[in-house]
């Protein structure tokens, strides 16, 4: 070329980035005599694609005068590379500089809120969009759908979803996954069927959502058929897909099938896969497979005490009291919970209970169960979850129970398990003992408080 314009240099840089040659793109960038903001934007976006956030930050810092498009590129880089806090920090900086964001800026900021589960900030962004007259196109609406669905605001997500001009795979997937993980299984199944009728093929995340929905309501055959159908769509099952199917098979008592599925995995199963089998063995008192599953769980996650607690339950139900007691002594966790079934908030509460010194009395006699009631001191430095637990326990006079109580022949175990929202109002109630370990309908800001009692023909309630 007789004369190389800045635009032609930028085109070459973009071409090398599209070909995956980021080093050549950088060398062309450095060779430019006159760089403009587009030159920086193109290369920042290139570094974003290959995950090199530090190089993108370096370029961003070199620019003295940054316009909205430059901020857009850097905010998107942070959001696309799981640096959500940095994305929102830069978004706030942009607002302080009176740079009006556009749809691209806002979509990246909403994505960051979704990663952090920051429903409050995300809702503010929606209000900002509507208040400033920015067009709520399908791209922005879908970003908000993803945020609301992941944060449990399914009704808000539905309102936006129904207003879409064109419902694409991303929108359906956000809704299906959101409904699946928030206990709206029937809604997730209905949306999946609607998507199939619209001839929109699912992706890996869509399958995760629908499998979760099938698992929640115990649709074993449907879950297995969906798992098998992955090949039809050219998809390979992830380890998490295996974990969900193993879970639904195990809880249905099809333990040998679940074990066979694990043995046939091409990828190395993580502890969640073996933990799902162990949970099923605990529910159905299968000692042989339970020991196998527990051995793998403990090998993969030696510091996790929940697996030992489940195995101790199996030993107790099988009459092997010495083995159960041995595990109890080595295991500080005495609350029988499954890690994949509870939100992080619940775990924080359970560990607070452990810090208060809850211990298990074992073995259990017909008239003695480890029931503990204790006020929790929510002082000025208490975490939000501890404060909520204290407030609700005092307000509702709830009995908190420690220990893992196995079902025994001759007695029937009754359970009251309530899910409370952060305002202290109950959201749901389950009565089956088997649901204690498998219940996973909780949102991030809900928690369990449980009480148990037994009833035998001879002795009556204990």
TrEMBL record:
GO molecular function: RNA binding
Annotated transmembrane regions: none
PROSITE patterns named among the record's database cross-references: PPR
Database matches in InterPro entries: C-N_Hydrolase_sf, E_motif, PPR_At4g14850-like_plant, PPR_rpt, TPR-like_helical_dom_sf
Keywords: Repeat
Keyword Lipid metabolism tagged: no
Start and stop residues of the PPR repeats: 5-35, 36-66, 67-101, 168-202, 203-237
GO biological process: RNA modification
Keyword Cell membrane in record: no
Pfam family, one: PPR
Cited Gene3D superfamilies: Carbon-nitrogen hydrolase, Tetratricopeptide repeat domain
Protein name per the record: Pentatricopeptide repeat-containing protein
Annotated source species: Capsicum baccatum (Peruvian pepper)
